[in-house]
Amino acid sequence: LDFYFYYLDRCPENYEGDHCQWPICGIHGRVNVITRTCECYSNFAPPFCQDCLPRFWGEKCSHSLLLSTDARDLDFFPFCRIIFVSFSLFLIYISKKPFLYKV
Which residues cross the membrane (predicted)? Predict the structure, then answer.
């Protein structure tokens, strides 16, 4: 790779350095100096960390597709528990999953 780019006037897109040996990873990754490849941050795809991994989208690749078909995950009514705190105060605890009590 280094020999091929040595005689070019300028580096190809996404590469930099005296011999075009360093990839440009942008703000969504960093260069591994041993392998000379980009190590992308969460949900960004190699080789240059510019696009999202499959099933992710958005500016920060933080949105993903819903892949669950379990009816419990699609429930619109979460589990509610009323916890007695004092005579005049009740605490309502809302969670997606039921409580597990250890005996």
Answer: 76-94
